[in-house]
User: Fold this.
Amino acid sequence: MASNLLHILPPQRLLRPLAVPERLLLGPGPSNVPPRILAASSRQLLGHMHPEVLQVMDDIKVGIQYAFQTQNKLTLAISGTGHCAMEAAFLNLVEHGDTVLVAVNGIWGQRAADIARRLGASVHELLKPPGEYFTPWDIEEGLIQHKPSVLFITHGESSTGVLQPLEGLGKLCHRHGCLLLVDAVASLGGAPIFMDQQEIDILYSGSQKVLNAPPGSAPISFSEQAREKILRRKTNPPSFYLDMRWLANYWGCDGEARRYHHTAPISSFFSLREGLAMLAELVSGSRQAKARLPTITTVRVPEGYDWKEITAFLMDNHAIEISGGLGPSLGKVLRIGLMGCNSTSRNVDRVLHALRDALRCCRRSRL
Ligand code: PMP
Assistant:
């Protein structure tokens, strides 16, 4: 470009080197990326339709089937973050005028209801105060009253730290002619989930939490019933990018020759493959009895303290990220994430030490 034609000058800040400090990421995600996964994402690119990349996609597929405990054919990773998988689930399943029931006990139910409404669904919300979970009786009441075709529920409510028990919900939904859609972005790999045994129809997660990969790809799987509902649609899904019929072909799930749909985020897929491989190498954990989300610990903000001062103190003085509340838990809790490689007793000691320091040093607020 002739430089005398440039009215916008090269930005000075881009002429400085990239600055990325070392930090312990103990918020609700992303979590730190271990060297093996970082190394995978910095490998040289290949073409997105090269056989080696298709092989990596096949590895990801079986990795998700293992992580989700499912044999579903329609299993793949969305090129996008958790929200993208959430939208992919809704916009493939729901048509204008369909009835959707959303279990809302934190921000993720609120967002799911918003997404379903944008698609023209008739949305009903089952409400619980933040910190509580839904019993099968709560759910059954909603199913009887509203007769939805899809029920949305969050397994790991990262805004409140609640782990939703899923036992029996799939069966219940199926008895009432409804599909069960579960958000496991914040829980997958940290809290047990059994997609086939628990009769979950659509399950999705994210790459940047327990899987310890960078954000940008989101595992998702559809049961046979959910797949059939998609194939029976009267109208096209209102997104080309997230149309599951295209994606099923691109991921080799429909038995036909793979066609170009979009350019896969290849480096994200390399790192997701390694995150899933590391999960496959772990011995699976034991069942959690209490409704407490093991991946994100919520702690009530101590009386008289300002949560923002505490999180800022940890960041500035200890290079540790923890987070405040979100949505209905805003201002009430601190959220400490221990996910994948970050889930070590050393990190627990580090964050406890830093919190003790914060309680000593942060001035009490003007309450
Ligand atoms: N669902 C839950 C339970 C989450 O915790 C998050 C991320 N905090 C999301 C969905 C959205 O994921 P993303 O930020 O990757 O789009």
Q: What stands out?
A: Confidence is low (pLDDT under 50) at residues 284-289. Residues 74 and 120 are 25 Å apart (CA to CA).
